Structure formats: structure tokens, C-alpha cells
């Protein structure tokens, strides 16, 4: 059991789990718009997510020398370096317009992480802004990246998926913020810190309802499969939101909540 826990901890801390979630959401975007499977785009999203998340999690701590280079951290650094080279390889496999967009997303990540602003501050430390930047990055990587690479025209249906994906990620982050309510810096002004846990849950339910309502506006909907998928996922997210509280273990959000897109993807594989 100890070995299994160590493997699970490394899997989560190294961002492999969240990267698999990104891979799953890219796959779902391709499915919803009938895009041929593109391994290069999905691989770029997967390895790029590992690099991006590990950069965000460990950069500031490393620069401030607040962490010792333990064996686990050295392994994460090696994985991140290998992922960086692999994502760069797949980057050059993408269309030029996709590469340009990928650079823009990377610049947003740098803005979020590095202290470009006065008093050595970064965008992550702006009051209440974190949840919006993270949601936008996920929309960029999991929706716009595959659509741009496939040269899908920007239609009303694309706009709907952008909004739906933003709402989904936003609510998932709300769960993280509820679980981290007591440990988050009060200066961050997360949603639960501003309006309280119960009102945050109500906001989450409302946004999930909007997500489902938007499904009926799609021009290209010929069947109810996309609606069924999004209904199942929304219900799953709502359940996790309902049971979320400040006393949940770190696995509740970091493993189980982030497993929802993977569950969505696995469900698609079985129903195809």
C-alpha cells in the first residue's frame, strides 16, 4: 500500500493526471466537431500541460530555494524536461497558425507565473483573477488549439463550445477553491473567500445549468449524444461540488475531480 501511495502521489504531483485530463478534453472537442483524430495535437496538449503545470507549481519555490531537491522532485524535473522536448517536437508538427496560437497561450502562462509586474508580482497574485486565467488557458488548449489546427471555421457552434468549456473548467476550479478554502492566501480573494462556500456551490450549480441549456442552441446537433455526454459530466461535477468542503483530502480534488474529463473520454471510447 505504501508503494501504491507513492506511485499515486508522483502521478498527481508530476501533473501526469491533469495532463491526461487535458488529452481527454482535446479528444472530446475533436469528437464534437467530427475532426479526424490528430495524435500530434493531443500529444502537444498532453506534454505541454505537464510542462506548464509543473512550471507553475515549482518555479517560484525553486527560485526562492524553499524546497530541497528530493528524489521525487528530481524525477519530476526530469519528467518535465523530457516533456518540454517532446512537446517542442510535436509543436513543429502543428500548422503554423496553431503554432502562433500556442505561443500566445504560453505567453499567458508566463504572465501568470513570472513576476513581470511591480513589487515582483505576477498575474496569479491579482485578487480574484486566477480562476479566469486558468479557465481561459484550458479553453485555449482543449478547444481552440484542435479547432484551429483542423482549420474549423469560427461559427456560433464553436462559440458555444468555448463558453461551455469555460464554464466546466470554472466550476471544477470552484471545487478546488472550496477544498483549499482554509489554506489559500486570503489576498487571492478566491470565489469562496469572497461569497462563502454555500453561495459558491449555488453559483456552480447555476453555471452547470447554463452549460446544459446552451447545448440546445447548437446548429449542428443531429442527435442527443453530445447532450447525453454533457449531462452525465455536469451531474458528476454537481455531485463533487455538493460534497466538497474544506475538510476533504487533497486526493478529492487533485485526483477524483480531475478524473471527470478522463471518465468522459473513457465513456466515449465504450460508446463509439
Question: Can you describe this structure in just a few lines?
Answer:
Helix content is 73%, strand content 0%. With 272 residues, it is mainly alpha-helical.
Report what the structure shows.
By secondary structure, the protein is an all-alpha fold. It has one domain (2-271). It is 73% helix and 0% strand. The protein contains 12 helices and no strands. The protein has helices at residues 2-13, 16-32, 39-63, 71-91, 96-113, 130-149, 156-179, 191-195, 197-214, 225-243, 250-256, 260-271. Helix 3 packs across helix 4 (71-91), helix 6 (130-149) packs antiparallel against helix 7 (156-179) and helix 7 (156-179) packs antiparallel against helix 9 (197-214). It is globular and about 45 Å long.
What tags apply to this protein structure?
0% strand, 12 helices, globular, mainly alpha, 272 residues
Could you outline the blueprint of secondary structure elements for this entry?
Blueprint: H1 2-13, H2 16-32, H3 39-63, H4 71-91, H5 96-113, H6 130-149, H7 156-179, H8 191-195, H9 197-214, H10 225-243, H11 250-256, H12 260-271
What's the average pLDDT?
88
- SS-based class: mainly alpha
What separation lies between the terminal Cα atoms?
Answer: 35 Å
**What global shape is seen?**
globular
Number of domains: 1
Count of helix runs? 12
Q: Profile the largest sheet.
A: none
Radius of gyration over C-alpha positions, nearest whole angstrom: 19 Å
Instruction: List the secondary-structure elements in sequence, H or E.
Output: HHHHHHHHHHHH
Residues in helices, as a percent range: over 70%
Beta-strand proportion: under 5%
State the total count of DSSP E strands. Answer: 0
Low-confidence stretches: none
Q: What oligomeric assembly is this protein in? A: single chain
Amino acid at each position: 500500500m505504501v508503494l501504491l501511495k507513492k506511485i499515486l502521489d508522483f502521478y498527481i504531483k508530476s501533473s501526469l493526471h491533469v495532463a491526461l485530463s487535458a488529452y481527454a478534453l482535446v479528444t472530446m472537442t475533436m469528437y464534437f466537431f467530427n475532426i479526424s483524430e490528430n495524435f500530434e495535437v493531443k500529444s502537444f496538449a498532453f506534454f505541454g500541460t505537464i510542462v506548464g503545470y509543473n512550471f507553475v507549481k515549482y518555479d517560484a519555490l525553486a527560485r526562492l530555494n524553499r524546497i530541497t531537491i528530493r528524489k521525487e522532485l528530481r524525477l519530476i524535473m526530469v519528467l518535465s524536461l523530457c516533456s518540454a522536448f517532446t512537446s517542442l517536437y510535436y509543436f513543429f508538427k502543428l500548422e503554423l497558425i496553431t503554432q502562433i496560437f500556442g505561443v500566445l497561450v504560453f505567453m499567458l502562462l508566463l504572465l501568470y507565473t513570472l513576476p513581470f509586474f511591480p513589487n515582483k508580482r505576477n498575474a496569479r497574485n491579482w485578487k480574484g483573477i486566477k480562476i479566469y486565467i486558468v479557465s481561459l488557458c484550458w479553453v485555449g488548449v482543449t478547444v481552440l488549439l484542435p479547432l484551429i489546427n483542423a482549420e474549423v471555421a469560427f461559427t456560433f457552434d464553436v462559440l458555444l463550445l468555448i463558453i461551455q468549456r469555460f464554464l466546466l473548467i470554472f466550476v471544477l476550479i470552484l471545487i478546488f477553491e472550496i477544498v483549499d478554502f482554509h489554506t489559500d492566501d486570503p489576498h487571492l480573494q478566491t470565489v469562496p473567500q469572497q461569497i462563502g462556500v454555500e453561495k459558491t456551490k449555488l453559483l456552480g450549480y447555476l453555471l452547470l445549468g447554463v452549460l446544459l441549456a446552451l447545448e440546445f442552441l447548437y446548429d449542428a446537433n443531429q442527435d442527443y449524444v453530445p447532450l447525453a455526454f454533457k449531462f452525465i459530466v455536469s451531474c458528476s461535477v454537481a455531485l463533487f461540488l455538493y460534497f466538497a468542503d474544506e475538510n476533504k483530502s487533497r486526493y478529492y480534488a487533485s485526483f477524483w475531480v480531475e478524473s471527470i474529463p478522463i471518465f468522459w473520454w473513457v465513456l466515449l471510447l465504450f460508446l463509439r
